[in-house]
Amino acid sequence: MSATGSNNHELWKLYSQTRDPAIREKLILEYAHLVKYVAGRLSIYFGSNVEYEDLVGFGIFGLIDAIDKYDVNKGVKFETYASLRIRGAIIDSIREMDWVPRSLRQKNKELEKIYAEIESETGRPATDQEVAQRLGVSMDEFHKLLNKINVSSVVSLEEFLEQNHEIDTEGPDSRRDAKPEAYAELSEIRDILADAIDRLPEKEKTVISLYYFEELTLKEISAIMKVSESRISQLHTKAILRMKGKLARHRSLLTE
Asked: Which of 29, 47, 119, 240 could form a disulfide with 233 if both were Cys (CB 3.0 to 4.6 A apart)?
């Protein structure tokens, strides 16, 4: 970073008092790296469907919004607050493009169900061949489908995994009144996901670990595992389908 923490604090105080466009420009440049990082992480969902540069462009709007709305007196780190805003801006922009057809969302749900059924029947991770056969498609069609459906699962699983360690933008005491049953449900979901992750095939488990727990970008994971970014994206998609399928099956068993 080009400025020290104390200098940044002074910069924020000055901007909150003056709203000087020149100071705002300095803050945008100071925190532009956050946009690149968030875009680099979200690109695991989009593969070749959306260019990385477009994700960065969408994210810049989130950064500007975060700078304008940030309250330096609330005691929340700007990096935490801005990362959420940037991520939200990118996802909102993708949704506005609305190029994920309803049929693809339905295929996503169907795949989750198939993974859950096969793994429940066999007691082991479903293979690509088994899933493709039950879906009634060739292996080539199956892999093409995996590349397409990333986007339709961009929110749900990541929120489950991340909400536990994201700092609340309203301050540390804001969740104290939350209902105990909500915490119990979240704890149960965490246990189900932990078990699902443990049962993933090794390469998928590695991708999930590097992405969600080491918080690396698609490019970094690709370099570590020495396979293409599109292959990492596919492994990530299959892991998500398995885990979401397990969650959905758990919920359906509870409501039967």
From this structure: 47
